[in-house]
Design brief:
two-stranded antiparallel sheet, 11 helices, 12 strands
């Protein structure tokens, strides 16, 4: 049974450990639940770009931020399916559909359900990130075949209001509860490099690890500084802070997929390798990540070959974290 009763001082102590000791514990936890040389590949496609009414200080798609992203209508089903087939062809096993909404709009929701059903029929895992969900919306997505729902907490409860004011932390926790109760796997993580401190990184991971069920997927994003957003300028993140955050996430949630997510275009191969050693075993795969660039899949394949890693070829019927909670 995984722990859901961590205390903050325990996480602060983990973050303060010598890096070698922290990596050893994280890698040991990783090997208890996963093949240490297998990487799960997810592709994220922006099916509805721009015009979001939220004021997230990092986001290129917020209508409140002065970026060059213009609002567009939701993609047609045929376009979504072409993107999913292309992702499957290059080796992705999970297809995530992102939409820049506060919550799904009634006129688009039937099209979303059709998209989930159609992608599922391709033999891929399905994922969506659509903003806040009601109980009924979560149940409908489950019935359509949605496997994962992404809804990040972004940062700690204490630092949250420095980043977002248009919805509360509790709003996010409520959506996670609706998703969990509907029987959909949770994909939930956060962003580092927002100006937060170690206590905030600990607070984020503490919240995730003490949920009633660990998220089956935990994306750890490094802030991409977008011109026109409030966070476009700021101190650069120490790369070892990213490594430490991934390692602590792996120790706290040993049966979860930990995804090395946004910011990989600015990472060296050596840094990515260290993140994999710290317990990351999933990436976003393909040349775009919503509105930001992502490494070309050929570059990722070349890195995997150098490191002796291999892509997950088959969808696992059960997830270690789900099994351990039964």
């Amino acid at each position: 049974m995984f722990r859901n009763n961590w205390e903050k001082h325990e996480l602060i102590e983990l973050f303060a450990r010598p890096l070698n000791d922290l990596l050893f514990q994280a890698q040991s936890s990783h090997r208890d639940f996963f093949d240490p040389n297998e990487i799960q590949l997810s592709t994220l496609v922006n099916i509805k770009e721009g015009g979001c009414p939220e004021d997230c200080a990092y986001c290129s798609q917020s209508a409140r931020n002065d970026t060059d992203i213009q609002a567009k209508p939701m993609m047609h089903l045929e376009q979504i399916l072409l993107a999913a087939k292309a992702a499957k062809k290059i080796g992705a096993t999970r297809f995530c559909m992102g939409a820049a909404w506060r919550s799904p709009r009634a006129k688009d929701f039937p099209k979303l359900l059709s998209a989930v059903e159609s992608v599922k029929a391709l033999g891929m895992e399905t994922c969506a990130t659509l903003g806040m969900l009601s109980v009924d919306q979560a149940r409908a997505l489950k019935d359509a075949g949605l496997d994962y729902y992404n809804h990040n907490l972004d940062t700690s409860p204490e630092y949250y209001q420095q980043i977002i004011t248009t919805r509360t932390y509790q709003h996010r926790l409520d959506t996670l509860a609706h998703v969990r109760d509907a029987g959909i796997h949770l994909c939930c993580g956060g962003i580092i490099g927002l100006g937060e401190g170690v206590e905030d990184r600990a607070g984020l991971l503490l919240t995730l690890a003490n949920l009633p069920r660990h998220p089956e997927s935990v994306p750890i994003n490094m802030l991409i500084r977008v011109k026109g957003t409030p966070l476009e300028a700021g101190a650069e993140l120490d790369p070892f802070d990213l490594v430490r955050t991934i390692a602590v996430a792996r120790i706290l949630m040993p049966g979860s997929w930990v995804r090395l997510s946004a910011g990989r275009t600015g990472m060296s191969d050596e840094l990515q390798a260290l993140c994999f050693h710290a317990g990351a075993n999933s990436i976003f795969y393909g040349n775009m990540l919503l509105t930001a660039e992502n490494p070309e899949h050929q570059k990722d394949q070349a890195l995997f070959q150098r490191l002796g890693l291999r892509a997950q070829e088959e969808i696992k019927s059960e997830h270690p974290s789900a099994c351990a909670h039964q």
